[in-house]
Amino acid sequence: MTCNFISKIYGSLRALAECSLAASAGELVVLLGPSGCGKTTLLRIIAGLEAPDSGSVLFDGEDRTAWPPQKRNVAMVFQSYALYPHRTVRGNIEYPLRVAGIGRAERAAQAEEVARLLGIEKLLDRWPGRLSGGEAQRVALARALVRRPSCFLLDEPLSSLDAQRRVAGRAEIRRIQRTFGVTTVYVTHDQDDAVALADRIAVMNQGRVEQCGTPTEILTNPASVFVASFVGDPPMNLMPGRIRAVDAGVVTIELEGGGATELALQRCPTVYPGQCVTVGARPHEISIEAGSTAAERDTDTLAWNARVELVEGVEPDLVVHCASPGGIALVRAPRRPAGGDVRLSCSASALRFFDVKTGLRIDKRCTDHPA
Predict the structure, then answer these.
(1) Which end of the chain is more exposed for a tag (fewer CB within 10 A), N or C?
(2) Which residues pair with 183 in a beta bridge?
(3) Exposed/middle/buried for 4, CB within 10 Å: 0-12, 13-18, 19+?
């Protein structure tokens, strides 16, 4: 399934702005983003429930932008599950087959087969009002999957569940998707859902896909300040910095009110002296030590002084909030630091750099660090 340069405008609101997305056969792609970013609009356009103002939707390389929903062979599950209360579980699962004109015996056989695969065969004669949240979810999935769709669309199906059921629901959806091998697009604003489920995550913002990659790629190598700040718990630290000098193939970068470090020019080939940048580092990539020292330049480490403001969590999984001239830095630490004044440091190879004006990544990563 491929979306090419999809745009959609509602009055003065641009919901999608030349948005592109591709999902390979059998792949689970998660559309992740805040409310209002356009992810549900894109899902509805894929399903044929909305028409794009421009752009195209292709299935198996064939342009089906103008095709009605019933001809696209896609199945969609909403947050509410939308089960028919006057039909049994069997009747709900069989309904798409009934609409398609499939005979009674074949409907029953297909419904029983998909119910068996989803582990709900004992629920076939039960009414929707007697189902638990997890059971209703599986029935909705069975109804969507019974006609073997070429593309499976899920719009926040877990958002009404509590935390414990949500974890179980994620595992169930992933198991089912792998069992059926169906190409799936899943919409959510919850990064835990995205990281747990996705083969690839498409991070959306203001009607565009800002970055699409594996969960590890998104966490380790964010393409923009938005992706860096939206994905990750705690989020990436984003600190104001400046290019102090570019000389003899070496770039010197300094933090606002902090230390400085040197990088090979090939890491940041387009920077210039005096340029303001945003310096990014994940909380687990920063080390913390008691005490403080004078700011200095180091060839392989960026270090700066800070003061502990708050400590969250329980040992050995603490998040320490540290105040410095450049703002609050979050640090993962196994133990509570002794004293208020601390020295923070991060390997230069783990730092990311973003353009202040565009918010886009400007450095070339030399090594990958586990996120």
Answers:
(1) C
(2) 151
(3) middle
CB half-sphere exposure, 240, CA atoms < 13 A: 10
- Whether residue 370 has a cis bond before it, omega within 30° of 0: no
pLDDT tens-digit series, residues 51-62: 999 999 999 999
Q: Do 245 and 214 belong together in one domain?
A: no
Distance CA 214, CA 201 (A): 6
Burial class of residue 16, CB neighbours in 10 A (0-12, 13-18, 19+): buried
**pLDDT the model gives residue 157:** 83
Report the Cα 164 to chain-centroid distance in Å.
Answer: 20
Tally Cβ neighbours within 10 Å of residue 69. Answer: 12
pTM of the predicted model over 0.85:
yes
Q: Is residue 301 in some structural domain?
A: yes
> Hey, which residues does 138 pair with through a beta bridge?
none
Burial of 356 per CB tally in 10 Å (0-12, 13-18, 19+)? middle
What are the phi and psi torsion angles at 131 (to 5°)?
Answer: -100, 145
Can you give the pLDDT at residue 326?
Answer: 85
* Residue 308 Cα distances to 79, 249, 319, angstroms: 42, 37, 11
Give the domain CATH number at 130. 3.40.50.300
Range with lowest mean pLDDT among 65-74, 104-113, 191-200, 293-302: 293-302
Which residue reads 């909403």 in tokens?
A: 78
Domains of the chain: total:
2
pLDDT digit string (tens) for 141-153?
889 888 888 899 9
Cα→Cα distances 343→260, 288, 299, 323, Å: 14, 6, 17, 11
Q: How far apart are CA 251 and CA 263, in angstroms?
A: 5
